[in-house]
Amino acid sequence: MIHQSTWHKATLGGIAGFVLVMNLAGCGDISSTTSAARSSANAMATHIDSGLSGGTQDDAAQIGTVGDSEEGSGDTGSGAENVSREYKNALRSAESYLKYSDFSKAKLYDQLTSEYGSKYPADAAQYAIDNVKADWKAEALDAAKAYQKYTPMSDSELYDQLTSEYGSGFTPEEAQYAIDNLDK
Asked: Is 93 exposed, middle or buried, given 0-12, 13-18 or 19+ CB atoms closer than 10 A?
């Protein structure tokens, strides 16, 4: 039996990959293709995330909770009890999105504030970005690996895709780290 969180990750990755491949077959613009694939993946992540809030306790236990993550426990440090429920929920959503897809800070912020995403206010989304436990360089490396798997490209093109506001939105440092650490 496949564990539900594994199934969700595999399904999300498969859908994003399928959308990417199908879009590549129909158009040569990697930026719009990647945006379409990312949008589909984000929509699936949003669906999964919204399913958590409407699911049973057993569903949440199978999928995993914030406290189950090795990257962070959801503990926001001292004063966490003074943080609003919406801020805490934004942080939990950020952690959930990072479990299912590779995000830069910029794209995660966009997902959290998007009218098609979680619809958090800007201050709650920024709180989540500032407090989520993520290795942004590792996120960039994982994104680079995914790009290379579905659309091999030169280092220069990959760098542009990783840093583009229409692509992944990673910082130049994060993108360079990813390129430098791809398997040669």
From this structure: buried
